[in-house]
Amino acid sequence: MSAELAELRLPTGWQWRRLGDQDAPALQQFFDANPEYFLRVGDEGPTADEAVQELASLPPPELRYREHWSLGFEQQGRMQALAVLDAGLQHDEVWHIGLFIVATSLHGQGVAAQLYQSLEDWAAAEGARWMRLGVVAGYEQAERFWRGRGFVEVRQRHAITMGKRLNSVRVMIKPLGEQGIEQYLSLVPRDRPE
Q1: Tell me, what's the pLDDT at 14?
Q2: Other beta carbons within 10 Å of 31
Q3: Which residue, 74, 99, 107, 173, shows the most beta carbons closer than 10 Å to its own?
Q4: Alpha carbons 164 and 25: distance in angstroms, whole number
């Protein structure tokens, strides 16, 4: 099954586009204008080639996936959010959010929740039964946001290098429908609690 990005329906006034190498300057500008994520997880702002690195990054070779997207979300022609998604990560019905950043100026306005809901609805329509992500332990704003969307922690991974820091990352899952966490863990042994 191939996801059709045309089915991604966003809130009024928002547009999306799939990002490629040619979008590195616009993405870098977005990162530079919104360094909060990088400061919180890595104790330093985005590097000068952060966008180039992000656009070139893929899941580790040992993790199979079906499709990988970097999506830029724009409002009035200006990039205001980024989502990096992997469909079929580790199992055909698992969609993974590798990165989700919304412009700092839009925090607290419900924009992130609306954009995320658009992504979840699209994933579910394309056959996703679970959403998955990793959130840095101790990044309280992000942890609160994802818990508020219905994600639950299934395990932690430790000593993950991000910028100048080693972090612990909470692996979080959200079932989309009647399938539960136990069924997910039976299909994705890598995420079983240690």
Answers
A1: 95
A2: 20
A3: 173
A4: 24
Distances, alpha carbon 130 to alpha carbons 12, 186, 188, in Å: 26, 13, 11
Assigned token pair, 105: 């100026």
Structure tokens at 157: 């991974």
Radius of gyration of the chain from Cα atoms? Answer: 16
Measured in residues, the chain has a length of 194
CB 73 within 8 A of CB 15: yes
Type of residue at 4: E
pTM listed for this prediction: 0.93
> Helix 111-125 crosses helix 140-148 at what angle (to 10 degrees)?
50
Q: Which two tokens stand for residue 124?
A: 């579910």
131 beta partners: 95, 174
**Mind listing the domains of the chain with CATH numbers?**
5-188 (3.40.630.30)
Q: What is the pLDDT of residues 135-190, one digit of tens each?
A: 999 999 999 999 999 999 999 999 988 888 899 999 999 999 888 999 999 999 99
Answer for the pair 51, 93: CB distance below 8 angstroms, yes or no: no
Sheet holding 14-18, edge to edge: 14-18, 67-75, 78-87, 94-102, 130-136, 165-175, 152-162
C-beta of residue 92 within 8 angstroms of C-beta of residue 66 = yes
Residue 47 neighbours by CB distance under 10 Å: 14
Cβ-based neighbours of 144, under 8 Å, separated by 6 or more: none
